[in-house]
Design goal:
By secondary structure, the protein is an alpha+beta fold. The protein has 2 domains: 7-48; 53-186, Trefoil (Acidic Fibroblast Growth Factor, subunit A) (Trefoil), CATH 2.80.10.50. The chain contains 1 helix and 12 strands, in the order αββββββββββββ. Strands 2, 3, 6, 7, 10 and 11 form a 6-stranded antiparallel sheet that branches. A 4-stranded antiparallel sheet has the order 4-5-8-9, with no helix packed on it. Strands 1-12 form a two-stranded antiparallel sheet. The radius of gyration is 27 Å and the shape is globular. The protein starts with 7 loop residues before the first helix and ends with a strand.
């Protein structure tokens, strides 16, 4: 059996096509590799956006979603800092000087329950709804501390109830008093 090999003239277009295809594959691989590196870099940057919030009166404590719950309306408390994602929060600007504060582990918002304007209203994590009871203003108190004020009230602050230093102490909305249990810092 005799195998017939086409002349070089017939192979030339195929060789050019394979060379171009190889260049495209190589360029595409470089683009994919660059995109993967960029995705990794932006993923790392996102991790930096999460912070602990610590009250001034009890610096070893953190703003904490109790029991690392992912449920809507789970209680927010002051808990001993341990680095859990239920103690890491991200703030996202929704208007000039107004932010949503989201828990890393659940992507739910820091929320004044039932949009209550009352002193002593409970603070929970809730599905983000863009309600003013989930929007917060950071009011500078100096030395790296600030008050967190919900946008639906004018004179209420995020507060550790009764200035407790205990693990599990309730976090509420209370009349602003400039108390150290109402001053927070981000770490």
């Amino acid at each position: 059996m005799r195998i017939r090999i086409p002349s070089r003239r017939k192979w030339a277009p195929l060789l050019v096509m394979f060379a171009v295809a190889g260049s495209l594959l190589s360029a595409t691989a470089g683009t994919v590799q660059a995109e993967t590196s960029r995705d990794r870099a932006s993923s790392s940057a996102r991790l930096i956006d999460f912070y602990e919030f610590r009250p001034r009166h009890a610096d070893r404590m953190c703003l904490d979603v109790a029991h690392a719950s992912v449920a809507h309306a789970a209680d927010v408390v002051q808990g001993t800092c341990w680095g859990g994602t239920n103690q890491h929060w991200q703030w996202i600007q929704v208007a000039a000087g107004v932010y949503e504060i989201r828990a890393q582990h659940s992507d739910m918002c820091l929320d004044v329950a039932h949009a209550s304007p009352a002193h002593g209203a409970n603070v929970v994590q809730g599905r983000c709804t863009s309600g003013n009871n989930q929007h917060w203003r950071f009011i500078d108190q100096g030395n790296g501390f600030f008050e967190l004020r919900p946008a639906h009230t004018n004179n209420k602050c995020l507060d550790v109830a009764h200035a407790s230093t205990a693990h599990g102490a309730d976090v509420i909305q209370a009349n602003c008093s400039r108390g150290t249990n109402q001053q927070w810092r981000r770490l």
